[in-house]
Write a structure and sequence with these properties.
The protein is built from 21 helices and 31 strands. The protein is an alpha/beta fold. The chain has a domain of 129 residues: GMP Synthetase, Chain A, domain 3 (2-Layer Sandwich). The structure holds adenosine-5'-monophosphate-propyl ester (PRX). The site of adenosine-5'-monophosphate-propyl ester (PRX) has 22 residues, from helix 12, strand 19, strand 25 and strand 26.
Amino acid sequence: MAEDALRMIAESPKIDPPAAYTERSYVRSMAEYEVLYRRSIEQPEVFWSQVADELLWQSRGDTVISGSLPEFQFFPGSYINVCENCVDRFALNPATRNKVALFFEGEDGTRRTVTYLQLYDEVRRCANALSALGLKAGDVVCVYMQNLIETYVVLLACLRLGIVYNTVFAGFSAEALRERIVSSGAKAVVCANGSLRRGRVLRLKETVDDALTGVDRVEHVVVFRRLPDLETPMTPGRDHDYDTLLSAASTDCPPARLEANAPGLLIFTSGTTGKPKGIVHAGGGFLLGTYAYTKYQLDLRPEDVYWNTADIGWLTAHIFVLVGGLACGVTTVLYEGALDWPQPGRLYEVIQRYRVNKLFSAPTAYRMMLKHGEEVARRYDLSTLELLVSVGEPFNPEAWHWVRRVVGGGVAVINNTWGQTETGGTPLASLPGAVSMKPGSCGVPFFGHELDIVDRDGQPVPPGTPGYLVIRKPFPSLARDVYGDRQRYLQSYFSQIPGVYFTGDSAVRDEDGHFWVLGRVDDVINVSGHRISTMEMESSLIRHPAVVEAAVVGQSDEVRGQVPVAFVTLEKGYAPDDALVEALKQQVVHDIGSFARPARIYFVEAMPKTRSGKIIRRMLREILQTGEVRGDITGLEDWEIVERLVSELRDAAPGSG
Ligand code: PRX
């Protein structure tokens, strides 16, 4: 794996951005980037102050950065409201008030357009409606909605009041939702009654009802009727209709005064244990960071029509649209549903309709385009596209070249960025007008971010040598805590290698200073850009009475990047038949959500283990990938188990999962 990657890096072409693009870029050459980067590292206070100058502060003190990792703050004692920066600044300016903020397109073809002024009124009404329910700064509200204008309104209203929102991806099951509601101590839930996905109706309100069974703390559920004809059970006293609440609310609602380091938002993500972590971001820090990433890595300009396909359930949408995008005053497209539904060219149709010039998506979506073929893309006018951005998983060169040639007309700039829920942005990316493209690379460190690649002892490794990706200095959008568990925050990110933030990824730097992220070094897998803990899946499988032991590993997949594959040993008396395979898959869907459904389940007699009894998942991965075990076998307790596994897998019918 590492050898293949190193070969890819060595053979990578270097492609310069076209002059027409560079001319309109914020940073126009590698030399300029290098000067600015060096300055931003030597004097991070100066760099972040300049970024801060472009935002609207309620009051701003002199201190820019205090403390160091992991106890740090940006602009301590300064006050700033995220919503005011994302909405009011443009709604109150006569030059931009009637500018389109959001073009909404539903999967069923519903279309709506909202200007900054309209957004301003809606957000203030919504904030007053939430206040009328007794919700206030510091309370947690869980938001379980797909991409809708109302979702943006609710989240911005929370930011306006200082309510800490916790978005949960609307593909999570009732069990997973319950866990996230309970662990975050949410007082209220806001949901849509349903969402559309590949023509199917997902009954979100019913999922919320299931999730809330036995949960007393939640006092209010606000329901937006996305599908007016969908029968929606309402519990009197607890449940409220969104439209009714808003129609009674006034628009008079000044932004709350909020300290820049106060918690702004919360989002759960998978870690290496079975329990998801509630990642806490500071409101002001998140705004400062995401504004800078979005402006420079997307070269955002007022005239752009920008579409980021991410679902609001993932932090990418908050970084690059909700906060970063709106803080740049941009016009964005908001799309609900599957990108290739009801026909494979749906994504292209949307690009063509709105004349999108900057598209942000994930490798899995780009590979989906490739799978549908060139002929589909050729039916549309994609000539407006000048920048294609990606995040979330490795962007394989084959898809990269295809996308640039077919979707980008051979001229669009591709910017593959690297980031994490924890980093609240993308510390690695290209500055698209300045840095030459290398297919598969994640570009260079962003201003004010000091990244390094080190060995186990924290010593830097030379270019060309894989190691652990770490970040040496604080930056504004770095997570500030794991909700309710400071110890887990310190343990997960700051304990392996002292003094630095540990990303959990391995990476290589090449001779030109480009970073190439190779993948996770822990038990987290990446399925279509969804981050899933294999431990979480294993705990789910073991809950089924037939299962004695389970091990889940990621297997490479052409479109989804990786798919989860489970190895299971059974309790005596259970037959490894199709019904059981389905039941186990259902167990995972029930506990986590359908996106985590195992692609295959292998029933095995025994697992390869260390002498201390730990399952060696690395061997399972190797057997899956190559059909044999060639890596280090010292520490293995019983070689026969491996031989048996290899032959069992060879004989397993393809339908065994
Ligand atoms: O392993 C890295 C992978 O995705 C992980 C972060 O996942 P998540 O928190 O869901 O990301 C949210 C994005 C804001 C990372 O630890 N990853 C992300 N980008 C890339 C990547 N792997 C390779 N190349 C990338 N460009």
